[in-house]
């Protein structure tokens, strides 16, 4: 590992860290796509949280958290997903299991909760999440859901998501299995030319931006998973001729299952940045073998790119040479971010993901700066060490990383699911560039640096 001895890294974590200028980890590349190291204080969420963030944006579904109230509050309204219809998804329902339920079982509480939603709220679709405590005490959630489905004539779908049963990626898989359980009864031979959008959660309305682009080039959107989705529209998904996968980490498994069960092929896309947005629109048209859509995609992309040229040139001079640290959920998002920063003339010196795969890290290694540090499933101590060592000017991450950036006195950009403005598409390039510039060139960082220098001088003189 070379440099790993110079920083405070657990021995078990060393193979999850790659120093690009060392040529990789002992010639074997970076270790990834595995459970977190015990005691490493991973930034990852649990299995249950992984499942919840995928299913939560379904606008008219009821979500019952079968477990302690803390599990429900932890994931309540955690995505900035927007809806064009119902806002039911922003509520959280819980069986609130207590000590006596641990001893005597919680199935009666779950049955009562489903009965209440089915009768008083006239629910059509209910997801029931099995949490850690349910996995320990052994409540038969599947049997309860099956019986209640028959009793009320509605879909009650179990989500097997005890937090200790794997990692966040396992939660994605459990959510995808729940979606497939919903769709399987609706196999259909007759197809319509159109796409399903997988892995976009309509954060700040990004699904609407993507759908608008596809409409402009003449591509029909059949269904979405799960941003701005609803029960009725999701059932149309088996009719589509192509799946496009925006968030590969959460939805490639679903795309594979849909290809097996419904014979729908898929391609991975990204609508972050000018290059990836333009490429994705053309590739979608090519995958559909729609020459007219391809021509429109090229013309539309060229037109939008031209509009952004002058705008990006104005900001590039303020950002050129600045150093960036990235820590996000999936590898595909990290790749798109590095491309955007390269386009701005910025250097990515630290980059990590929670759920990246081998092929993601190979691309990341090619795109990142020559002396970059690449991390899988990093913890705060590692991020802090390498951010300071590499002199990063800004950290791009999620809500868990924000306090770390401010503690270190550097700028921060939220690229996770709580943000309130769109970062996808050509509009997103505008928003993203402005935010990076405003954050990284805010004068307060200079005051903080000067204050630290003064404090250091006083301490050194004592």
TrEMBL record:
One example of a Gene Ontology biological process annotation: protein-containing complex assembly
Role according to the record: This protein may play a role in the biosynthesis of the prosthetic group of nitrogenase (FeMo cofactor).
GO molecular function terms listed in the Swiss-Prot or TrEMBL record: nitrogenase activity
Nitrogenase/oxidoreductase component domain boundaries: 46-440
Keywords: Nitrogen fixation
Family (UniProt): Belongs to the NifD/NifK/NifE/NifN family.
Pathway where this protein functions: Cofactor biosynthesis; Fe-Mo cofactor biosynthesis
Pfam families according to UniProt: Oxidored_nitro (PF00148)
Record's keyword annotation contains Ion transport: no
UniProt xrefs under Gene3D superfamilies: Nitrogenase MoFe cofactor biosynthesis protein NifE, C-terminal, Nitrogenase molybdenum iron protein domain
Protein name (record): Nitrogenase iron-molybdenum cofactor biosynthesis protein NifE
